[in-house]
Design goal:
By secondary structure, the chain is of the alpha+beta class. The strands form two sheets. Strands 8, 9, 10, 11, 12, 13, 14 and 15 form an eight-stranded mixed sheet that branches. The protein contains seven helices and 15 strands.
Length: 264
Amino acid sequence: MPKFLRIGVHQSNVSGYTSKAWCVRRVGSAVFLKWGAVEVQGAGDGRKVYWSRSPQQKTVRCGTAQRAIDYATAAIARRRNHRYEPLTGPIALRRRSAEHSTELKQALATILIVDIVGSTAKAAKLGDARWTKVMGHYYAAVRKELKSSRGKEVVTTGDGVLATFKKPAAGINCATAIQKAVRTLGLEIRVGLHAGEYTISGGEMVGLAFHIGTRVAAKARAGEVLVSSAVKELVSQPEIRFRDHGVHQLKGVPERWRLWRVEG
């Protein structure tokens, strides 16, 4: 069963954060897919990978063995094109106590989503070796600013980062600091922030607030930091200025939302 893992920097990540893995297996005319969030512990040859929770699974019945072969080949090629690396070792399902597995932690925070604009084209232009080095510097810069702003990294998604802050102003200041830092690497990012209640379940963030933050980030263009009205209403610092970005329908989110662009 070919397995693929997507992480920030090939074979050299710090341990203890969440990434994503895929498994592709063909049996006759059927293709079995398995995917989900994983926790990476360690690096290099000593690295261990665990499913954060039970992975999602899907069976694709292709009708003929040749169609199944073509489907599996294409699925594997897509993983590689999206900078997933082949994973040779096993992916274990970490055993948790019954008390821990059912525990739900609720929190109210400002959620920050950072995403690199045009990352696929940039990676193709630079090549794997140079892009790996750039991504290493990128994550180092992001984590430095998160630490300075007392932000908490929740998950990395290939070239994106999700983090939370207790104070919305800290999240906004961190976003602008990250922008300045990564421009020295020739990268442009878009950032979205939303404030709301979310739940941590099985090590993953769930809840509508998370989805709203993701949709706000998707509305931003290169170099923009967009925030929802929920964030703007909580900011009292006069040095943080906003410009009305209009009312938007966020995909999959009820009602329409007014967004604001951070100025300066």
